[in-house]
Amino acid sequence: MMSGRQQRDTLLALADHLPAEAAEALLELATGGTPRIPTPAAPAADPFEHPDAQRRFRVMTNVEELERALEFPWDKWSIFLHPDQRQFVERAYTGPARISGSAGTGKTIVAIHRAVFLARNDQNSRVLLTTFSHILANALRTKLRRLISNEPRLEERLEVHSINAIGARLYKTHYGQADLAPQEVIVDLLSTAAKEVENHTAIPSCSPNGSKS
Fold this sequence. Notes:
Blueprint: H1 4-15, H2 20-30, H3 63-71, H4 74-77, H5 83-90, H6 107-121, E1 127-131, H7 134-147, H8 152-155, E2 158-162, H9 163-175, H10 183-195
Parallel strand pairs: 1-2
């Protein structure tokens, strides 16, 4: 019998081999949701006009359009928003919202466009986009600048930082420069405390880069 983690890994591996709409339906079911029922194309309609077809195909109507597409910078294609994603960007939510999906389904692009949408629709707003690592924050910042390259004033109200950077900045604002204990000291304290608790699993030691030993 597979563990919960094995089941999750198997599900994500399966989703990676399915068409995008099938993978999204599978992940929606796995997280307790109800998959969106696709609208069938009308018998006489152009199949390439269907939203699911537009995920994979773009019909060029003339040579000039094809030339413009080939000349279009790749960095602009990398922040392209699909019509199905736009509904999540522009929806009026009554509280927190979660978008789930496997790697490559466009969650990051939705987050970037959502941040820009909020800033554009409220001239007095300041929008913070956060992630879990400095590397990913830098990548998001680069994509964001590509999206609003012609709106420099908008960039002044949009910030992209890692959670750690935000925490450090807030602490410094209220209490001054943080004096953080080295990771080795923290791990040593946790290991010592774990040994004092009966039937407790020992804390593995970690190197500064986060790898376990």
